[in-house]
Amino acid sequence: MKNFFAVVIGLLLLALQLVEAGSNGGGCKNPIVRKEIRSASDEERKNFFEALQVMKNNGVVDKLAKIHNDQANYVHNSTIFLAFHRYFVKVFENELQKAKPGVSALYWDWTLDAQHPENSILFTPEWFGGNGQGDDHCVKDGIFKEWQFTTIDKHCLKRIYNKGNAINALYPYEAILGNINNSANYDQLTHAIEGGCHGFVHLGMGGDMTEMYAPNDITFWLHHGMIDMIYYQWQMVDYETRKNDISGKLVGGVEEISHDTPLPGYPDVKVGDVLDFKNNLLCYVYEETGTAKAMKIAEEAARKAAEYKKSQGSGKGNSKRDLLGGVLGAVGDTVGNVVEDVGDVVKDVGDVVEDVVESVSDLLDAVGDAIKDITKALGLEDVDLNLLDPKDLKLPIPDKPCGGWVAMTGISPALIDEQHKQMVQTIKKYNSMKYYISPSAIHYAHRLAAIRNATTTSTPVVVPPRRKCIPRTPSPAPAYSALPVAA
Ligand SMILES: *[C@@H]1O[C@H](CO)[C@@H](O)[C@H](O)[C@H]1NC(C)=O
Ligand SMILES: *[C@@H]1O[C@H](CO)[C@@H](O)[C@H](O)[C@H]1NC(C)=O
Ligand SMILES: *[C@@H]1O[C@H](CO)[C@@H](O)[C@H](O)[C@H]1NC(C)=O
User: Fold this and answer.
1) Which of 2, 323, 362, 472 has its CA 20 to 30 A from that of 21?
2) Angle between the 439-453 and 338-377 helix axes, to the nearest 10 degrees?
3) Are 260 and 334 members of one domain?
4) 10 part of a folded domain
5) How far is the CA of 446 from the centre of ligand 3 (A)?
6) Which residues form the Tyrosinase copper-binding domain (predicted)?
7) Residue span of the structural domain in which 303 resides
8) What is the pLDDT averaged over residues 458-471?
């Protein structure tokens, strides 16, 4: 049924796009809908993978990696980070559509995999494969395992997870919401994202993803789809004010960005053209995962459960204790009248037990119903939280990012520290809410069930030893005016 609707909606969207294409750009009336890769139908994913194979065969995948590598010094450690990458994902999407009409960019909501990213379905043999293997760290499974790259030299796809066979925890949605809430303007948001959640994904996967030719790894595009969606969600908080909001310094910290600033690698395109996702050039929207909604439900349930527990300490609770005291009193006082009273005592005890059971189950209901609602909001089947290690009911605190990557992007260590501190504070706040259950935990329980269910077992991975954090010397910041005119 779900697939049927997906196909119908897919056909409608395709029809709308054709109408749009035929109308010669008469405004963004029928925006492309970008989905989370797991929310896309099997058919949509198949088309996406097929379009990518076409783009690999005709050299586009390698060309895009080269553009990113060539422009690296201009598009990082700069307020242009979000704007440039927004356009870059659009270029990728245009290429997808050239390769296979109707295919749109997909994104990866890694907040759902935040606790144990290495267990994500994305890293399975049926999808993008897992960690690199052997001395050369080549990825030997996944649909694109045969690919060889040309940027910057001939090589296989490399991944080197930053915790041996595991990946350091990523930002949960709680921390993303913190970034959205705490960023009053574009400049604040772009720095919070670049030096925060964005880096964790690159760094966690390692290999090509920690190089400036990261687009060799297709997950780069899904990751930057997510980064762009966070920017989109921030704009949607106050769309009219934020749709064209721009501010901050370009690389080198001298020149101020403006709507007329040309984009690195795309000199004909100006920053002002790539801010409003509803404009003609961009014209897309995101189909959001239920994460934000699930978080709201979880917060509300935690608040209610805490209130309920508190109410047990007074009023209602006292009357129960009184009742219990009365029962015990009755038992003690009336040795002589035991036989006579026993009927009443049993009745009273029965009532107390019933009340206690009722209050506990009320509490469980509050949280249990919320779990169902969260699960539903996330688009999952029922989950069994018993599958989780109890510590996974809370959010892990991700380790601070490795200094080497920090140096490569040129982002100031002080900014990285500040972002990390804020994220840790947010996670601790949610972890201290007694009855709060993060969508990340629920999603992970679901994933564990699927892993246990899996009929196909992947070949055991030979995991290379954990890589040391090798410091790198940053390349000196160029002046933005040194930007090469032609790509
Ligand atoms: C973000 O703001 C919303 C709305 O004001 C609030 O409910 C939520 O708790 C805030 N969350 C964080 C992490 O700042
Ligand atoms: C990063 O930006 C800051 C502030 O603009 C600047 O001081 C620093 O030199 C830059 N680092 C690199 C490597 O570009
Ligand atoms: C596990 O397998 C059962 C039976 O095939 C299926 O109904 C269920 O949806 C699966 N659960 C997950 C989480 O994949």
Assistant:
1) 2
2) 80
3) no
4) no
5) 10
6) 76-93
7) 295-377
8) 52
